[in-house]
Design a protein that fits this description.
3 strands, mainly alpha, globular, single chain, carboxypeptidase, Neurolysin, domain 3, 20 helices
Length: 491
């Protein structure tokens, strides 16, 4: 076998072990007994030790040095690029540090859940400080004298820097703030009323998942505090959550996670358990979940179909007709929770986190001052005070598990989704007629053919540009939001 064949065979086993580690994380969020947290931390640390040793094995470096990249076909060259990126990054991080991060973040996740339930930030702060210290140590090793936060971003959005994101978000924030103010100056449409049976919510949630193309023979839907998608290839799982007074929380969490899951399920089968067999970045991943959830799932056409499904499932729920239902689904209102935020305000929640975590990584903000900094920034951005930690600094799991650099990819994904939606509308001119019948196949098929099938073949912005036909920028997203909400609110 050639060095390249040896490298791919070795990497396939590493990829498979990575999937096993991911399944441990899925189980921790869905099935694991609470009392197993300490043991699970040791299990995760052991898996990370094995994975880190494989990713940094000197044999990988020898194979990489022996391969003539210029002689490879495009797909093989992309595989080599991804393996080399992983090897170079992993080699900069000591194995004992990687294991300790896995151990501490597994434990911190449980501490976060307990603190969130008790609304006690002080109980979580010590372990968060430990996580941040370890992640800053890792970031310094990766940055090699450069910017720590930029080094962390490479894990989630290769090729993007904090300065790039700051410039993009700087263009978003004033326009979103102005649109938000204009909307909130108008009377709010009515929302749904009553209580919605959990079993009926989950039944309709499953129908929605299948409507958007989720293959349940290679996936499953469970409940979790924080909805997520996990896995790739032939085993891609999602979670959702229910609220007896707000069925949209369940339905749109499901559609969102199905966007992530379908991306993974629709990658070319030839890439299974290879470096190309996963989504290329979290920003591109988020573009799929957001376009499924918002531009498709919250469209006037699709909500017309969903209104009928809701009536069948729940009877009269306080909404008189399809137009009122469309307005209710897209209702802009005050709220604390990022994952429950409307399209107009969602990115403002993300920008708050982006600025705070950059400050945490640079050392400009301490864990002791984080809660106050969060509350001050939230009140400045939204105009009202945070009432309790679970509605503020404790609402998200990300920092407890060390995902610094992840949050900005949510807004980047919205920007990408705006570009893709613009192109999709041009490619499928009768899209609304199809969506009104509950038929998403042309839209999801276009996304599969133009983006999802490629996995990690192309770099993040490259695949968005190939699919949308334009350099990614915030203009299509802002035009979409302005047009949509001006229509709903009569601006």
């Amino acid at each position: 076998m050639s060095a390249f064949d040896d490298l791919l065979a070795y990497d396939q086993t590493t990829q498979a072990l990575g999937q096993v580690a991911g399944r441990l994380g899925w189980d921790q969020e869905t099935m694991m007994p609470r009392g197993a947290a300490a043991q699970r931390g040791e299990e995760m640390a052991a898996m990370e030790s094995v994975l880190h040793a494989r990713r940094t094995d000197p044999k990988v470096g020898d194979w990489l040095a022996a391969i003539d990249a210029g002689a490879l076909a495009a797909v093989d060259a992309a595989k080599l690029r991804e393996i080399k990126r992983s090897y170079d990054r992993a080699s900069k991080v000591p194995g004992d540090l990687a294991a300790q991060i896995a151990r501490v973040t597994s434990n911190a996740q449980g501490k976060w859940a307990e603190a969130r339930e008790a609304d006690d930030y002080a109980a979580f702060a010590p372990v968060l400080a430990e996580v941040i210290a370890l992640k800053r140590e890792e970031g310094a090793a990766l940055a090699n004298g450069g910017d720590i936060y930029d080094a962390m971003l490479e894990d989630y959005e290769p090729g993007t820097t904090g300065a790039d994101l700051e410039a993009m978000f700087g263009a978003l924030r004033p326009a979103l703030t102005e649109l938000r103010a204009a909307i909130l100056d108008k009377p709010a449409p009515a929302g749904v009323a009553g209580r919605f049976d959990e079993a009926a919510q989950l039944k309709l949630s499953t129908l929605l998942a299948e409507t958007f193309g989720y293959d349940l023979t290679h996936g499953r839907i469970d409940k979790a505090v924080h909805p997520f998608s996990s896995g790739s290839g032939s085993d891609v799982r999602i979670t959702t959550r229910t609220n007896p007074e707000d069925p949209f929380n369940c339905f749109y969490s499901t559609i969102h996670e199905v966007g992530h899951a379908c991306y993974e399920q629709n990658i070319d089968d030839a890439y299974l358990l290879s470096p190309l067999g996963r989504g290329v970045s979290m920003g591109v991943h988020e573009s799929q979940s957001r376009i499924y959830e918002n531009q498709l799932g919250r469209s006037r056409a699709f909500t017309r179909w969903l209104y009928g499904q809701m009536r069948d499932a729940f009877g009269d729920f306080g909404i008189a007709d399809e137009q009122a239902f469309y307005a209710a689904v897209n209702r802009v209102s005050n709220g604390y929770i990022r994952t429950e935020a409307d399209e107009v305000q969602y990115n403002l929640h993300v920008l708050l986190r982006f600025d705070l975590e950059r400050a945490l990584m640079s050392g400009d903000l301490t864990v002791g001052d984080l809660e106050a900094a969060w509350n001050d920034r939230f009140e400045a951005d939204f105009g009202y005070a945070v009432d309790k930690p679970s509605n503020g600094v404790l609402q998200d799991v990300h920092w407890s598990v060390g995902l610094f650099g992840y949050f900005p990819t949510y807004s980047l994904g919205n920007v990408y989704a705006g570009c893709l939606h613009e192109a999709l509308r041009g490619a499928v001119p009768d899209l609304d007629a199809q969506l009104a019948q509950g038929d998403t196949s042309s839209a999801t098929g276009w996304l599969q053919d133009n983006l999802q099938v490629h996995g990690s073949l192309y770099e993040p912005r490259e695949v968005i540009e190939k699919a949308s036909g334009r350099v990614p920028g915030p203009e299509p997203l802002l035009a979409y939001l302005t047009g949509k909400f001006s229509g709903i609110y009569g601006l």
